[in-house]
Write a sequence for this structure.
């Protein structure tokens, strides 16, 4: 989901620094390792910019997983059957787990968990724009699994080969679990489209209509507006361009929509035999930048929910730590 | 914001995936004490039958080799092919020795 962070970073000016001869030499050795396809581990030397870029991307990826629990958590108590409720609980728990794998990977780069939490809660750090849309009906939950997790998988699979090994290892774990997320969503929609009433089918179509464009926005700005840092590509932090991934997603998803019996809200969508791909309409980029900039339908609500959870949990964190310290002192005295 | 000293300490998690295999490092997490670390490791790292046993150890307790000493530590093994069974050429009649 989550390479959006990279594109925002590219908009910022890079500080010019004078490098020492020793640093230049180490940088050369580092680049040679990357070229050889070597993985970089936490304690290995790495250029500052590499470290910063990764901290930024991994932590924002982690924030996306954590905030991503909110739109779906909204439906846990209202899931239509016990089976769907158990599935949704498992899925939301997975998102929490993914957030934790990723925070841990970011911490290997020398940032602390509290620093990252603070950046999220203060609104300084971004998370994927998709989670600023509301989940209005039960069908939204199925559509999130199918489209949102589908887009996330498309984005995340290439990251399993990221040059930074702790991130790559976390991504392998995440990708293994995401496939369940997408399949359960699609199956839930399929159940409604095959056995549902006319109203339930209309509800699925309505959810697809609302989530289609935000899902396409998950891949970030168009390539022409996203000067792909060549360096990030080389470092394998980003492996495929935004537009390439978006195209791949559309091509994979349209046949799935046909099987499901729904349409996507894009009059310009058309198979292009010459390109062996679908042509599709222009994304509303003004909306994209509005949501990224904090003015989406749920930005404030999401941040307020995270802040409340953090504040309400403060006494638990403090009590657990006080208890642990007391036990440690007792043990030492014994 | 919270005082950094109030952050729960970091633990490294090792999981034995099934009886007979080694415990393998699988990640880290924050927990107030060892009992909580085990419980959280179960929820974070073994939601899909990935484990039958868990070890946790405070991250600060792990002593790691220095990556810049990789050469002096491990290169000496590179030219000692005679430590491998395939170094020795023996007659076929021996079958599997």
């Amino acid at each position: 989901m989550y390479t959006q962070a990279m594109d925002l970073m590219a908009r910022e000016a890079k500080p010019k620094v004078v490098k020492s001869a020793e640093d230049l030499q180490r940088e050369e050795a580092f680049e040679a390792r990357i070229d050889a396809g070597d993985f970089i581990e936490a304690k290995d030397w790495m250029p500052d910019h590499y470290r910063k870029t990764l901290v930024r991307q991994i932590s924002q990826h982690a924030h996306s997983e954590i905030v991503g629990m909110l739109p779906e958590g909204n439906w846990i108590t209202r899931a239509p059957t016990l089976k769907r409720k158990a599935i949704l609980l498992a899925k939301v728990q997975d998102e929490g787990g993914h957030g934790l794998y990723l925070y841990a990977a970011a911490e290997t780069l020398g940032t602390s968990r509290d620093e990252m939490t603070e950046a999220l809660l203060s609104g300084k750090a971004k998370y994927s724009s998709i989670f600023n849309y509301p989940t209005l009906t039960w069908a939204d939950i199925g559509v999130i699994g199918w489209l949102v997790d589908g887009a996330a998988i498309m984005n995340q699979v290439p990251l399993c080969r990221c040059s930074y090994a702790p991130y790559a290892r976390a991504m392998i774990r995440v990708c293994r679990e995401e496939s369940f997320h997408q399949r359960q969503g699609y199956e839930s929609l399929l159940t409604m489209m095959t056995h549902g009433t006319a109203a339930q089918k209309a509800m699925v179509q309505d959810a697809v209509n609302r989530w289609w464009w935000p899902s396409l926005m998950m891949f970030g700005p168009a390539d022409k507006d996203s000067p792909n840092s060549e360096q990030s590509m080389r470092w394998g932090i980003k492996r495929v361009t935004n537009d390439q991934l978006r195209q791949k997603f559309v091509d994979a998803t349209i046949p799935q929509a046909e099987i499901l019996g729904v349409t996507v809200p894009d009059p310009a969508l058309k198979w292009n035999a010459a390109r062996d791909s679908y042509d599709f309409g222009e994304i509303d980029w003004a909306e994209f930048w509005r949501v990224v900039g904090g003015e989406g339908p749920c930005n404030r609500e999401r941040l307020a929910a995270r802040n409340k959870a953090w504040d309400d949990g403060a006494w638990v964190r403090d009590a657990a730590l006080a208890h642990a310290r007391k036990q440690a002192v007792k043990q030492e005295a014994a | 914001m919270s005082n950094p000293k109030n952050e729960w300490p970091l633990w490294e998690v090792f999981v034995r995936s099934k009886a007979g295999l080694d415990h393998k490092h699988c990640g880290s997490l924050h927990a107030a004490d060892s009992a909580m670390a085990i419980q959280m490791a179960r929820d974070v790292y073994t939601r899909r039958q990935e484990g039958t046993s868990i070890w946790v150890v405070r991250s600060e307790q792990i002593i790691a080799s220095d990556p810049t000493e990789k050469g002096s530590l491990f290169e000496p093994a590179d030219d000692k092919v005679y430590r491998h069974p395939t170094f020795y050429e023996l007659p076929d009649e021996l079958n599997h020795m």
About this structure: The interface with chain B takes residues 41, 43-45, 90, 93-94, 97, 100-101, 104, 107, 112-114, 118, 121, 169-170, 173, 177, 314, 317-318, 320-321, 323-324, 327-328 of chain A (CB under 8 Å).
